[in-house]
Amino acid sequence: MKNIPHDSASKHVTGQSVYIDDMPVNSRLLTGRVVYSRHAHAKIKSPDLTKAKQLPGVHAVLCYQDIPGHNQMGPVIHDEVCLAIKEVHCVGQAIVLIAAENEEIAIEAEKLVVIEYEPLEAVLELRRAIEKNTLLAPARTMNRGDAETAMKNSFHTIRGELETGAQEHWYLETQSCLCIPGEHQEINVFSSTQHPSETQAIVAEVLGIAKNEVVVETRRMGGAFGGKETQANHAAAWTALLCHATKRPVKIRLSRDDDQKITGKRHRFLIRYEARFNEDGKLLAVKFELNADAGYTTDLSMAILERAMLHADNAYFIPDMSVTGKAYRTNLPSNTAFRGFGGPQGMAGMETVIDRIARFLKKDPAEIRKLNFYGTEKENITHYGQEVELNRLHLLYDQLMETSDYAKRKKEVELFNSKNEFYKKGMAITPVKFGISFTTSFLNQAGALVNIYKDGTVLVNHGGTEMGQGLNTKIRQIAAAELGVTIDKIKVNATNTSKVPNTSATAASAGTDLNGMAVKDAIEKLKSRIGKQLAAEFSKIRPEKPTTVDHLIFQNNTIIDSLYPDRKIAFDEAMVICHLNQISLSATGFYKTPDIGWDKLKGWGKPFNYYSFGMSVSEVLVDTLTGSHKNLRTDILHDVGDSINPGIDLGQVEGGFIQGMGWCTTEEIKWDEKGNLLNHSPDTYKIPSVQDIPADFRVNLLQNVPNPNAIRKSKAVAEPPLMLAFSTWLAIKDAISAVGNHQHEPFFQLPATNEVILLSIEDIRKKIKGN
Amino acid sequence: MRERMKKVKSVQYPQHEISFILNGKKVSCKTKGSAVLLDVIRDVFELKGTKPGCHEGECGACTVLVDNVPVNSCLFLAVNADGKNILTVEGLLHADGTLDPVQESLVQNGAVQCGFCSSGMAMSLKALVHQYENAHPVAGEIKKGIPSRDEIKKHLEGNLCRCTGYVKILDAAEKLFLNNE
Question: What is the C-alpha to C-alpha distance for residues B10 and B18, in angstroms, rounded to an integer?
């Protein structure tokens, strides 16, 4: 298929795209505001709302007692209250809601809300949580073989710890919701959510009304990255409560600072590892203990932990493997989905192990990676029992080593390092193998509703949401190709729970895979109905030569009888004929991913429909006196099967890599000792700017690798490229290691901030002196 | 919206009458002294293409041109717009409905994903084009040749994008100037 610009591109660059905050609403619109906890853990006395309520221009001030339904907004486990009752568990937890005529009045009203806190001990560090054993749920395990025994019998051992940091989503559009009251109990919710069906469920629950009274619509999001998978529900629930209380339209758009303070982040992990390997560097046994900082409620933490455990092997065959996963409660906002969903943390642990083995054996890590990649014929079963089918790792490695000129440049790096004392260069190649499917198997389903109108135009509804990833563009392309019409005939509707019900979140990179198939299913039904009618019409033209639906071809806005191509009709004319013959031109479609099944308790089975693969090589320059670094060049080769839209897929790979690079380098999140987020705005929290991207950035898609398991032989993209950024991260480590001429294993963390780099270099310098 | 601002805010704050050119048309309105241009553009004139990103001048989503200089409209006091020529993303579109070359290049090069930074990006790029086509608003001279990729990066470093990784935005900028040559 081909490149066409993003569905909304022209609207985006002309300012015509409508986001929640841009929607025209009548003058009765009220501004909603959230009053949240200023303490990480405290008892609270019933807030005094009297004065706030008396302020002119204030229409509602609500606390938990004003919630008509359930005071609950936890998506999986109901352990997250909508408004705090007697205790608050993090800075940012909502306590009171205000609806006022405008933001200024709402802010004034907030100052009049009196909340008395009685501070309690707060757990803010993951190590402290482990010490206090604040487990969210019982530990999970995945085992293959006997890692315990294997540990005792193997040649070499390394063990250690890796800390990976939190990451703020930093979607450009902050959490936003607009609610408009309907008749009686009805409520229309316009939410910037990745999961309209869940938003609908939570709104219904807090209002104490049935789901069929709630319509949630999502036209588009200004970025999401997982941050609007569950946590968009919060703004929606709050807005709905205010709308219900005032019977007026209400909008909440969090300010940037509030958004960063209130919402969850990528989970921090503390990873403990132990690995045994032979003198060649071949892995024999690995033990991982993955500890995740869940924040104060469950949210999606257990699924995220599970995906981390499922990706602790990354791309490598490990005969005896044992993975334990634990998620701990802390007094921080509940951490949530973020592109990769635990995968990046799990893989960071494994990549650290591989890198350390190579440094231990004084070999090039590239060589150790190649040696341990999953095989194509043997050594191709993961530690949870799934076969790594259509393994592209070796193909990617061979091509990328050559196109990136790895061997030659590696020598040049060594030469540079031998001649320069204060600047050091580093290089690394890292692979990505990422499983595609929700690991909660039943979520792998999607619905669609396709309407054809009498003028031959088509309106496609599906359960996925557009957050910039180009889902709707791909859906248009799929629908046009399946129906044999040009793309201008297809329009994709805003996602709406009244059109397609009970959908899954647009997440797990599976938006196109699932919804594309559901759309295809609906179109096949329509083609069958239309085809039968037209076959009858065509057969009238030459009754002695009847035709059937199987002979009809839908292409170029025409329906043609392949038996007698003179029997043809324009698509729009055919729709009129169908209508006159009482043929329904509207059909629903449905899809569920086949052949997957996964026993969570045993940690064994086939959780994924297929795997995505990618690989990347980065070269960095580190200033050893300041700890700053520059990414000199990155080469990426990524597998997206037969791309539905190469332009969009390349954009996803580039964007994913840069976002991962941010997590690996500059995006450090800090809280003070009272649990206040210290960097809650872009002047202190540094996402990559245009100056931070690799000076030389070469991104390519692997060619001629059709994927039999997904729509039009494509592959999911979205999440996997984020983890390509480990090449930058480990190239930095390589440069640090060069300070000690690769004789000392550098201390290393994620993100590798200037501070981490500098401390690590100092550490090596001390070791050199010590020798 | 406008009425509401008057009703509530006129009680508490002195109002200033300001007039300026907005996307080629002379407009005027009353505003309080602390109001920023972003809010006046969005709430008074209901032009929603200019986006609120961070409200502290870091992300560039709210970039507009004031006398051809790109400014963060979230930090620019509305009263300072008095007598100025303001161009927002809506004003980039040509009268006949065709896209400005800046917009066209962003669309054709896949430089747009979620779109929330796109209007700010387009305005920053428009300012760069202006330096090469007309005159540098401060130096007064027309820049010669075409900007290097590094110069484009320097020019766009105040516009954050979380989706694209900037590659296609840079491509769009480069191709824009190559096509103009």
Answer: 15
Q: Is A119 on the interface with B (CB under 8 A)?
A: no
Of A91, A4, A143, A159, nearest in space to A645 by CA: A4
If asked whether residues A402 and A452 sit together in one domain, one would say no
Strands (E), A383-497: 423-436, 445-452, 458-462, 490-492, 495-496
Q: What pLDDT band is residue A254 in, cutting at 50, 70 and 90?
A: very high
**A57 domain residue, yes or no:** yes
Please name which of A255, A72, A102, A101 lies closest in space to residue A175, comparing C-alpha atoms.
A255
User: Do A571 and A659 share a domain, yes or no?
Assistant: no
Question: What residues of chain B score a pLDDT lower than 70?
Answer: 1-13, 136, 138-139, 180-181
* Inter-chain residue contact A681 with B58, CB threshold 8 Å: yes
Which residues numbered 100-129 in B keep a CB inside 8 Å of some CB on A?
102-103, 106-108, 110, 112-119, 122
Q: How many domains does chain A have?
A: 3
Record the pTM. Answer: 0.96
pLDDT digits (tens, 9 = 90+) for B136-146: 676 677 888 99
**Residue B9 confidence (pLDDT):** 44
Smallest CA-to-CA distance from A480 within A492, A468, A469 is with A492
The CATH superfamily holding the domain B15-180 is Beta-grasp domain (3.10.20.30)
Contacting residues of A for B163, CB less than 8 Å apart: 223, 468, 651, 655
Torsion of CA A121, A227, A252, A500, to 10 degrees: -130
Kind of pairing between the strands at A610-623 and A423-436: antiparallel
pLDDT digits (tens, 9 = 90+) for A426-474: 999 999 999 999 999 999 999 999 999 999 999 999 999 999 999 999 9
